[in-house]
Amino acid sequence: MNEERTLIIIKPDALQRNLLGEIVGRFEQKGLKIIGMKMIQLEDAILAEHYSHHVDKPFFASLKNFMKSSPVVVMALSGLNAISAVRLIVGPTKGYEADAGSIRGDLSLSGQTNIVHASDSSGSAEKEVARFFKSEELFDYKKIDFEFVYGEEERG
Ligand code: ADP
Description:
Elements: E1 3-10, H1 12-16, H2 20-30, E2 33-40, H3 44-50, H4 60-67, E3 72-80, H5 82-90, H6 103-107, E4 116-118, H7 122-132, H8 146-149, H9 152-155
Antiparallel strand pairs: 1-3, 1-4, 2-3
The structure holds adenosine-5'-diphosphate.
The site of adenosine-5'-diphosphate (ADP) has 10 residues, from loops.
């Protein structure tokens, strides 16, 4: 198991619907470590970079409008195998197809206003953490639950 960092964006729909605490709580309860967290206002340039795979899609303008419609909360999480574990908790893109128990499955009915972004691979996770956090905004600290969140062999 590898120590990994991954990026979460808690999107405007989650803030407007008072779901911020619920979402942060789900990641905390899983055992993930919050190593960075802040509220920011997204703008065109960073959205074009972050969603570069969608810039030519017909829905890109509405995606940008949505993502700029209020501040968002960005979080960097760390944990063993954190990238795939977080994607499972978040669920697939379309809330109406996501399994119950996942954040999108429980809290979203939409393919666009789907509550959270989560990095989808190790290649994108490192880039995304660096896109939204300066190194001095990321914290390396020991968490006292570490030896109960993971088994002895896994902790190395
Ligand atoms: P994910 O967020 O699950 O990694 P994508 O990278 O494919 O999914 O899409 C990024 C975001 O773009 C989605 O989370 C969603 O908010 C939005 N999006 C994706 N597809 C559509 C669509 N067909 N119409 C509107 N918005 C979309």
